[in-house]
Amino acid sequence: MEFTVHDFIQGLLPEAMPAALGYTLAAILVAVVVLSAFVAPLAGVTSWLERRVWARMQSRVGPNRVGPQGLLQWLADGVKNIQKEDIIPASADRKLFLLAPYIVFSGFLGAFVVIPFGSWLIPADLNIGILYLLAITSLVVVGILMAGWSSNNKWSLLGGMRSAAQIVSYEIPAGLAVLTVIFLSGTLSMQGIIQAQGWAPWDWFIFYNPFTLVAFFMFFVAALAEGNRTPFDIPEAESELVAGYVTEYSGMRFLFFFFAEWGNLYVIGAISATLFLGGWQIPATVFGMTMADHPLLKGVLEFTVFFLKAYLWAFVAMWVRGTLPRVRVDQLMAMCWKYMVPIAFICLFGTILFLVIWPEGNRALTFATLAFSGLVMLYFVWRVVFQIMHSRPTLYFKPYV
Amino acid sequence: MNGVIEYFQNVRDTVKSIFEGMTITFSHFVREPSTVQYPDRIAQQVQATLPLRYRGILEVDMDICTGCLACERVCPINCIAIGIEMNPETKQRDFTQFDIDICKCMYCGLCMEACPTGSIRHTQEFEGACNNPAGLVRHFITEKVPLYKPKKGGETEPRMIQKVDIGKRYLDEIAEPEN
After folding, report:
1. Are residues A197 and A303 in the same domain?
2. Is residue A14 part of a domain?
3. B25 to A339: CB separation less than 8 angstroms, yes or no
4. Shared-domain flag, residues A318 and A255
5. Are A245 and A302 in the same domain?
6. For residue A382, what are the domain limits?
7. Which residues of B touch A383 (CB under 8 A)?
8. A49 and A145 together in one domain
């Protein structure tokens, strides 16, 4: 595989051109293709889906006019924003102001380098994959703080400061939850973490023991906070800060911040799926077909499984957004430092203890955790049915209106 | 010790309330949206669903208008303009103008209460949007028409009987329901 890619790149270039330059150009080309063919539509469709999901939870319909069921709403929004004037405040720090959206965006786009869409489908399987991911997504803080500072506006600055404080704080529970998984898998590589799990739920790290189950939710909540998602969207709390760090932005630069936010939703889901939910793992034989014999089908299945797992958690993030009100700044910090950090530490040390006692894992406890999760799910379904019975509404299961 | 208990209670309350909240929003997720997708994706015209006593844009049935000017006089903002002149040939009075400026009308309903025959009525129509305010003036006269004179002993022509009945019923049921 490596050999053919090398030959392909070298074959396209003139003899005199150095190989490093060829690889650089190829890398830029791949980045452009990935950005325009996967990330941009993904973020766009996520924005549309979020608005639809959110609308349905509020008994509305949501955007359903542009394209079939409003599927092309994101294109219309993009075209509208391109046409708008790019306003730069007279007193703004011009260079930083212009640069900030791209820093935020590259911080988000850089995450796609290590996201494993399939056993073959990963841009680069770094041996420090998850560490790289935590580092590169922190670049978003720099961009947000830059935007807040350079706008020369007190709302923007407050929003930027809040965002920085929030992201830096929530890195800790997120990092501790990730560390739990790293202890279990013994590797930092994203592919290595997935390979340490299996296709079946009882082989996933989320059900490995009760501590990892809690660690998963710690990670998910912390990731929501790092992605500035509701209920942790105090940096752009419109009731207090107009629009926070994006107050002074307009047109496409404004959109770039939200582009990153929506794309981040998928990244959050993808990381959750990789670390805790077995990533792209599929059974060795599906319907009697040995997967090793059908490499293309295997790739498609792996991609589908991973995409669905990742998107499930993107959906949960939308659902949380439709459910919970925004928390106050002090509540946000108290929640992180007083609750999530200690609980994440307990999860980490609990897992370490678990590994010391049962280095090969404890099947009984794994199945007990799985059964407990199943019971919680059943209780959840029962409560939903109860809510429906309670108010006797007109049910409407069709996704289109 | 109280602090410790409170700490665990907080954790429990957080988990419980979020769980409960998520069930409620999910149950809303499978409910029917209450949005009315006006104007094009609706089963029935909105006008048809409005109540009879809805005060929409005014209409005048010129066939049963007696030209008494009661509506013009009672209108608080003078949005009704009626012109009447004597026709020298027939020695009868003709309408030359009957305009209602919907732009000014405040839908108070005083005119329809004052009307003796029930010819000026509120309709269920409410779509008045247009590009030019002049387009909001409703002209009910295109050429000179004679005033309506109620015949002694009632109408004989079936078309007129129907119209007078509609006016009367409107007066009884909607304009002056207490009478």
Report:
1. yes
2. yes
3. no
4. yes
5. yes
6. 88-284+291-391
7. 19-20, 23
8. no
A338 chain-B contacts, CB cut-off 8 A: 7
Nearest Cα neighbor of A147 from A222, A253, A41, A232 is A253
Question: What are B's interface residues with A at a Cβ cutoff of 8 A?
Answer: 7, 10-11, 14, 18-35, 37
> Helices A139-150 and A94-109 meet at what angle, rounded to 10?
160
Per-residue pLDDT of chain A (401 residues; tens, 9 = 90+): 455 666 666 666 666 667 777 778 877 887 788 777 888 888 888 888 888 888 888 888 888 888 888 888 888 888 888 888 888 888 888 888 888 888 888 888 888 888 888 887 777 788 888 889 888 888 888 888 888 888 888 888 888 888 888 888 888 999 899 999 898 888 888 888 888 888 888 888 888 888 888 999 999 999 888 888 878 887 777 777 777 788 888 888 888 888 888 888 888 899 998 888 888 888 877 777 777 777 788 888 888 888 899 889 989 988 998 888 888 888 888 888 989 999 999 999 998 998 888 888 788 888 888 899 999 999 999 998 888 888 877 777 777 76
Whether A60 and A202 map to the same domain: the answer is no
Same structural domain, A57 and A79: yes
The phi and psi torsions of A395 (rounded to 5 degrees) equal -85, 150
Under DSSP, is residue A234 helix (H, G, I), strand (E, B) or coil? helix
- Domain shared by A223 and A79, yes or no: no
Rg of chain A over Cα atoms, rounded to whole angstroms, equals 22
Distance of CA A294 to the CA centre of its chain: 30
Could you say which residues from 55 to 74 on chain A have a Cβ atom under 8 Å away from some Cβ of chain B?
A: 55-61
* Domain tally, chain A: 2
Looking at this predicted complex, what is its ipTM?
0.79
